[in-house]
Amino acid sequence: MPFVLWSLLLAAMLPLTWAGVAKAGVRYDNHRPREWAAQLAGYRQRANWAQQNAWEALPTYLAAVTAAWLMKVPVAEMNAAAAVFALARVTHGLLYVADKAALRSLAWLIGLLAVLYLFLRAGGVIAL
């Protein structure tokens, strides 16, 4: 199976990873998870925000990969874009937790550009 398809699983697991970072080592209230999360501070709060952002990025990435796949963008190109997206999103989360806002925004932008590339390549706007 091509990496681009495995990247869908990776992208879906990233929010859960950041949720785990937010919850690790502290008492978690599963009866009121949103109230509990609203009281987080420091890196745990930022990990929760990274989780939220990862969920927000997921549908657009899934749609971009689907469009590229259906329009038969070459697998090598999709794999390259998927690698850029995956690396950017992992880096984004790490920088979120580390409170490196400017670098985090750059990682976010790189991930977005990978998504845009997939859409534009699928739509024939970019032809190689």
Automatic annotation (TrEMBL):
Q: Give the stretches traversing the membrane.
A: 80-98, 105-127
Per UniProt, subcellular location reads as: Membrane
Pfam families xref list? MAPEG
Q: Mostly located where?
A: membrane
The answer to whether the entry has keyword Manganese is: no
Keywords, A to Z, come to: Membrane, Transmembrane, Transmembrane helix
Q: Which SUPFAM superfamilies match?
A: MAPEG domain-like
Keyword Transmembrane applies:
yes
**What InterPro entries does UniProt report for this protein, alphabetically?**
MAPEG-like_dom_sf (IPR023352), Membr-assoc_MAPEG (IPR001129)
Highest taxon in the source lineage: Bacteria
PANTHER family recorded:
BLR7753 PROTEIN, INNER MEMBRANE PROTEIN
Q: What is this protein called?
A: MAPEG family protein
What organism is the protein native to? Chromobacterium piscinae
